[in-house]
């Protein structure tokens, strides 16, 4: 089969011109400017090597070649409309509940704000967000999908979709920097208030590094959750370690120095092997992988 030498999308512009009688009316219909319509029609003519429209003061009329092309354009438009309807039916055929476990920060910053758009595309799917201190066991059916960071597991029966590879950094608020300045060395950091953690959060490599590197630094606050670390840092109580996915989200937070040594982590989705092809699961994973890609950039 020969490959078309023109942009199929240009046929939409030609069809609109013929249906509406002018580039101005076609532009209104397509919600673009008049110059774009004229340029796309001219590009189509150049690509096929034929004059398709007769340009008059009263409007555009199809030439003999234009009439022949118009017949195909009408049929292609009909096929595209039917395809769109079929795809919409398939989307609406995706239904059910997806139980997703994730951290509170990921839920509040990235997933919940995008749910409205997800439901517009998949109105019959409902997302049940499960924020737990412990890691739910997907193999036991405690959740359908997990959004997690850290080391990617290799458990049999689980399928991994990597979203991003990133680091932890020390962050300071705009207000803190205006008041105390931005530390540029470990020596300067030793003199600044820092945000420490307790409980399970304190065992994360970035938290351990901070305690071991500046053990005598003044303590601005102590927290048992990343959500509280964010609040403390944004309040200007001190400098605190945060994963890039969270710290970079806030415009009033700024990285101090470079990435924390040994803090690189994977951010990924997990699903049971037996559930990976369920249409509602695929809909969630594909949609939110793209959503995280908007904020995180490509996987590196």
From TrEMBL:
Keyword flag Transcription regulation: yes
GO terms for biological process, alphabetical: DNA-templated transcription
Keyword Secreted: no
Keywords, comma-separated and alphabetical: DNA-binding, Transcription, Transcription regulation
HTH lysR-type domain location: 6-63
GO molecular function, one term: DNA-binding transcription factor activity
Family per record: Belongs to the LysR transcriptional regulatory family.
Identification of the protein by name: LysR family transcriptional regulator
Organism: Gimibacter soli
